[in-house]
Specification:
This protein is of the alpha/beta class and 399 residues long. It has 12 helices and 12 strands. It has a 7-stranded mixed beta sheet, with helices on both faces. It has a 3-stranded antiparallel beta sheet with strand order 9-10-12. Strands 1-11 form a two-stranded parallel ribbon. Helix 1 (21-27) packs antiparallel against helix 7 (245-258). The protein is globular. Bound molecules: pyridoxal-5'-phosphate (PLP) and FE2/S2 (inorganic) cluster. Its EC number is 2.8.1.7. It is an enzyme of class 2 (transferase). Its main location: cytoplasm. It is found in: Cytoplasm.
Amino acid sequence: MNDLDPRPVYMDHAATTFMKPEVIAAMAPYFSEHFGNPSSLYRFAAESRQGVETARRQVAAAIGANPGEINFCAGGSEADNWAIKGVALANRERGNHIVTSAIEHHAVLHTCEWLERQGFSVTYLPVDEFGRVDPADVEEAITDRTTLVSVMAANNEIGTIQPVAEIGRVAHDHGVLFHTDAVQAVGAVPIDVERMEIDLLSLSGHKFYGPKGAGALYIREGTRIESLIHGGGQERGRRAGTENVPGIVGFGRAIELATADIEGHNRCIAAMRDRLVRGILASIPDTRVNGHPKERLANNANFSFRYVEGESILLLLDAHGICASTGSACSSGSSEPSHVLLAIGLPHEEAHGSLRLTLGDANTEDDVDYVLEVLPEVIGRLRKISPLTPSCARIPEVD
Ligand SMILES: Cc1ncc(COP(=O)(O)O)c(C=O)c1O
Ligand code: FES
């Protein structure tokens, strides 16, 4: 970004995405002319009802489900809470044990911790150095008291894709339900709930160019699950509250667009990402790439730069108009760096200097060039002033 071009270089698509014009266009009439309450009986409200049902079909088609198995809610966090608390509470007489992984999103981890405080027991599986869960570990962790396995489809920080189908098979071999948080995977990894043996799957619209505050939980027909939100009879009595009709309509259109050509989209994004990674590794010494070399989201690049601190990197990048993320957490008041980076075995110092760049439809090759121009300078400047930098370290040249 310079004085002539105030557009930021946005490389934080894992945090959220802009909304596609087609999505905004699909939503627009539901803010104005089709404002009826889908539950109302007069004909005027039928447009709203149809908007919701069209979206339900679009979501179902995108993941290989039946429309009746799609339940709209307020986003990925609610879907995760619903899946885990809902299954744990509904199946209490069968058991009180849940198996999950150490690198789940906090919407899963904090939900599991809450359940532990209510008397449930949770196994947090370790991951390997690339962030993969071993299906054999899932099998070993399952006991006759286990009611749910919850392992994310793809990790939001390091982009690692899990062997979801294998984990689903293991869970089902033992008669245990399988939930996956697919918030980061939808639109990037083809999802088929039948083939992958998934019973519950969390989705969030704002990660695939849809609206924020719109999400869904796929619940396989016949699954025993409690509701979290009680009240009216919306969502066939499973999730009360007047529907966010424009949000649901946008969510449906966005998932349809995001899953139309996953392979072609990934090819294009991965080409940019790979050039970015190569350029960074070539120009900044003492750098490592975190996550799986192959089984990773096409748009994700996660680095650790030794001797520097992630939040300082972000501040300097921000001063250059670059939006990115870090796994370090000073500003949030926690002195602990990312649980994901620690779980893949990074020493504390390296986990502190992490940077996540996630590409998407907002990016061009020029953006990659710009980051490749700015980042070595930023890291060089920080290493020069860092007390951690040894005198023998090679520091990128700073003007
Ligand atoms: C893997 C994962 N799960 C859940 C969430 C929460 O989704 P939402 O922001 O829609 O509540 C996120 C969002 O960052 C995520 O990346
Ligand atoms: S110094 Fe920032 S998270 Fe540790």
